[in-house]
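Today's session is about reading a structure prediction critically. Students often jump straight to the picture, but the first step is always the sequence itself: look for stretches that repeat, for charged clusters, for runs of hydrophobic residues. Only then move on to the predicted structure, which in these notes is written as discrete structure tokens rather than atom positions. Here is the chain we will use throughout the hour.
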Amino acid sequence: MTDDWTAIVCSRGHGCRTIRVPRAAPSPEMLEWEARRHRNEVEWWGANLDEFAARLPRLRHICGDARAARLVRDVIAAVRRERGPDEAVIARDRLMDIWRGRRGRP
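Below is the predicted structure for this chain, in token form.
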């Protein structure tokens, strides 16, 4: 059981206050769905690496650093499985440059 933030806004427009409320643990079905979604996402980004590199800064902003780092790591592993270690090294270097804010040629 974890806690989640919930905002309650005053109906008169006086501001809002934030309270912490309990959140139920995710069900096993939801965990399996999330794992499938992640596998599909990794497979798609691995096949479309140029698009992934172009969208990485925005994905990082939306998803956060931890989830984006996991996605990058898994995409590089997918590239290694599909195209070999040399392509994986090139993909890793390219994505690391974008992660650090250095934009190079695609």
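Discussion point for the tutorial: The longest helix spans residues 28-47.
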